[in-house]
Amino acid sequence: MVNILNYLTGQSDGGVIGQIISIIIFILFISLYSKIMVQQTMLKLEQSAAELDRMALKAENEVLKKLKDVDKKKRKSIKRFLEFYAIPPVSLDPYGIVKKYDHILTLEKERFNYFAAQIAPEASEEERANIVMGLSGAIELNMIRKIVRHYVELIKKTKSINLAFIIQMQLPFIERIAKSLLKGTEALANGWPIGDGVGPYVAAKIIGNEKAQEIDEETVVARKKYKDKELIIIKAKGPGGRTGNPGKALEKIAQKEKIAKIITVDAAAKLEGERTGEVAEGIGVAMGGIGVERYEIEEVAVKNKIPLDSIIIKMGQEEAIMPMPKAVLDAVDEAIELVYESVDRTKGKGKVVIIGVGNTCGIGNNSKNLENSDELIKKNAKKLEEEEKAKKKKFRIPLFE
Fold this sequence. Notes:
By secondary structure, this protein is of the alpha/beta class. The protein has helices spanning 2-8, 16-64, 72-81, 97-119, 125-158, 161-190, 198-207, 246-256, 292-304, 317-321, 326-330, 332-344, 370-394, and strands at 213-216, 219-226, 229-236, 259-269, 279-283, 308-315, 351-356. It has a 7-stranded mixed beta sheet with strand order 1-2-3-7-4-6-5, sandwiched between helices.
């Protein structure tokens, strides 16, 4: 026995028996290693799936908190609505696909608004808009939860180690998105500004003390003089959570008035290593989503030969759906400066249209209404900063004691 131990620890050359034992141990290690790896991977996947289940339930509760007289029936109806889906139109024949998407999106908005009115009949129009956005976040998180759970159960049935490794490699990204969606759902349900709201924020600040008027149920328009130019500012109606209909609003304006330039301001995903709040400018329509609104803006621009300028404020993908970071708020003045520089470069006669793209949750329609927004942004940014510090302190590994 001593000889074997000596052999295994490299303290002697060993004999035939030692060599045989080492070969047996090596074979056992090879055969058991894959099973151990599978068990470890499955344990991690189970833990992640369970955590996503808890997060989805928490998101659901964030919406329920905004309702009065929550009973079993309301709980059941919300749980059922979290399974809501929208089937995209057939794209085999691409002709008219944008109009089909527009029709589906309009129906989706109507269905969400109808459901919000059902579960919160006593809520104001702005509160219902926030409930709609909160439901959207909860639905997205619920979908992520279901997909991860689906693959975990599939791996259990098929015993596929390759599939387990593929899902495990994606988990860090999935968990990051899920955590940001949970914080985003809380922000949207409570009417707090999120990162994606920086476009409407810039528009509201440019509007200043001017009065914004509704051009449709979800969109407002304001007019302002700047030097020798007349500005037309379009944004989603606030402070409830809405994204508005900027494309349709622009179409209505273009039918009656001459437009010299269109400037879009929006949040944009930064690359890792780039600074949150960095401002950049370019050409084209700065707008995410499926592309219906962007298509409508581009159609107006091409038809009337209107230049398209865009200004973006960079942030992480997660930061766009979370409470607005202070670095993004600090970038607003620089973005406004670039907007005015673009206006100064405008040639020819006509009005300059400025579109603040994004979710206007917690953001009013002019600078007077932004005072409360600033307080909320700073308060939430401080809270997030403290949470990050606490997390780093918790997981800090002491090297020297």
